[in-house]
Amino acid sequence: MKKIAIYGKGGIGKSTTTSNLSAALSVLGYKVMQIGCDPKADSTKNLVGGKLVPTVLDRIRQKKEDISLADIVFKGFNGVLCVEAGGPAPGIGCAGRGIIAAFEKLEELKAFQVYRPDVVIYDVLGDVVCGGFAMPIRGGYAEDVFVVTSGEMMSLYAACNIAAAVNQFRSKGYARLKGLILNAKGVDNERELVEKTAGEINTEVIHCIPRDGHVQKAENEGKTVVEAFPGSEMAKVYLSLADAVMVNKARFQAC
């Protein structure tokens, strides 16, 4: 089982990238489980027709102890298994601790043993890398970490913070930073800026996702590009990203 964490600053397109990656991996024949680790709980919505699935924390609050895997794991496009950790009500509680509680429930119910996915992808908010948000990289859940970024200053700053957090735990045998995914925003000299940052944090840019109208059109339908426009060039971009992630080899193309 390959275990991957996708981090990135809020609003960078991390969940869009992750859901399209999951869809692409499923098309390539892998059994995929995607776990959303953002209190907004919208990581998997484009895999399930644009809906928000019930979160693990919702179920814990509603059903207390009587929870089954069927309550928290939902099948999306092409059999992708979708899970949302969820979070507390705004202004109440700690979202990081919510992630910890969700992970503990998945372990208690032996989700990975039951479903036996080939790939597990954690979609994690990267504005902060503390508490529960660091669980995928410090709890032995993920092995490989990829960071979605653009050439914008704050997204590159977040990428550097995430890299530092990964390095803190590397000596303990936890997750490794495997590369940056450039989600292009049209910033001047964007490729050069991101490649420079990659060099500074001792990693590489493994792939570039260009700006393309198919992404928004697909999301308007509650779908990934891979599902809505399977024959498009943009679908091929995500299939190429899936290949790059699985073989840990850059497929960096022009944006």
What does this structure look like?
The longest helix has 18 residues, at 153-170. By secondary structure, the chain is an alpha/beta fold. Strand 3 and strand 4 form a beta hairpin. Helix 1 crosses helix 11. The chain has one domain: P-loop containing nucleotide triphosphate hydrolases (Rossmann fold, 3-Layer(aba) Sandwich), CATH 3.40.50. It contains 11 helices and 8 strands. It has an 8-stranded mixed sheet, with helices on both faces.
List the helices and strands and how they pair.
Blueprint: E1 2-8, H1 14-27, E2 32-37, H2 56-63, H3 69-72, E3 74-75, E4 81-84, H4 95-108, H5 111-115, E5 119-125, H6 135-138, E6 144-149, H7 153-170, E7 176-183, H8 190-200, E8 205-209, H9 213-220, H10 225-228, H11 233-247
Parallel strand pairs: 1-5, 1-6, 2-4, 2-5, 6-7, 7-8
Antiparallel strand pairs: 3-4
Helix pairs in contact: 1-11
